[in-house]
Specification:
Layout lengths: L3 E5 L3 E6 L6 E8 L6 E5 L5 E4 L5 E3 L5 E4 L2 E3 L3 H10 L4 E5 L12 H10 L1 E7 L1 E5 L3 E5 L2 E6 L4 E9 L5 E8 L2 H7 L6 E3 H9 L12 E3 L14 H14 L6 E8 L3 H12 L5 E5 L7 H4 L9
Parallel strand pairs: 4-9, 11-18, 14-18, 16-17
Antiparallel strand pairs: 1-10, 2-3, 3-9, 4-5, 6-7, 7-8, 11-19, 12-13, 13-18, 14-15
Helix pairs in contact: 1-2, 1-5, 5-6
Amino acid sequence: MNLQQKTLRRDIQCAGIGLHCGARVEMRLRPAPPDTGIVFRRLDQNGVEIPARQENLSRSNLATTLTVDGVSISTVEHLLAAAGGLGVDNLIVEVDGPEVPAMDGSAAPFIYLMHEAGLKHQQAARQFIKILEPIRVDTDDKFVAVYPADHFKISYTISFEHPLIGEQRQTFVLNARSFTEHIAPARTFGFLKEVEALRQNGLALGGSMDNAVVIGDNSILNNKLRFQDEFVRHKILDAIGDLVLLGAPLLGHVVAYRAGHTMHTSLVEAILAAPEAWCPLVEEEVIYDVAASSPELAAASV
């Protein structure tokens, strides 16, 4: 387990299409001092800074959007997941548009960029949020919860009435290796029959066969799946990104059933609203790391 804060060694940049806005966006990732957190900076809006914190959440239906003083940045979850998966605590993300580039619809390109920039430990201890009591959020027949654990573990189940998905479930104990190899490559997905309705509502304008898994009535319309259960793995990816809004890495077991961005961020809100159910831990107090002591659990699945 990484017990020191971490940032990038140098700047690195990329460009791509925003999944929902459809516009070309340039993005630069930059190192940041200890205790900065992850901060988005809208270069096209006079450099307005938008910290990746729950209090700045403004929308979380099809993507996670953050807003400060009327200026927003959308679809932040895949980049945040990459940072969370690699343990990057401090990062400035400069963008010249309203949305993070979609790239290939997964977190893998962001993992690549961060490795190319290099990762650097900083002379500051990480502070963890350790769950002491269960916290649960329910909506109809869906739920997301977190239970006490000495490591970050996530169990997720999805269920779609579609022959190519059905019910999928997966569990991972998270570290940089398990995230990079087993979660980061999982791409966002959508149903062909829903695309026109989304576009009529100003969404998915940049969606294409290059940045999403497109599902027809009886087949995948573009590239073959990267994992047999790529759909549930992408939901796990989204959850990891949304949980970064806590502002500190989590020590707990997250369990989700048919959840999504709105429920992920509702869990973040519920955790922050229940300080009696968790405690902050700093470097010298973190003594147990199941992913390091039991490598076979690093990508355990059920």
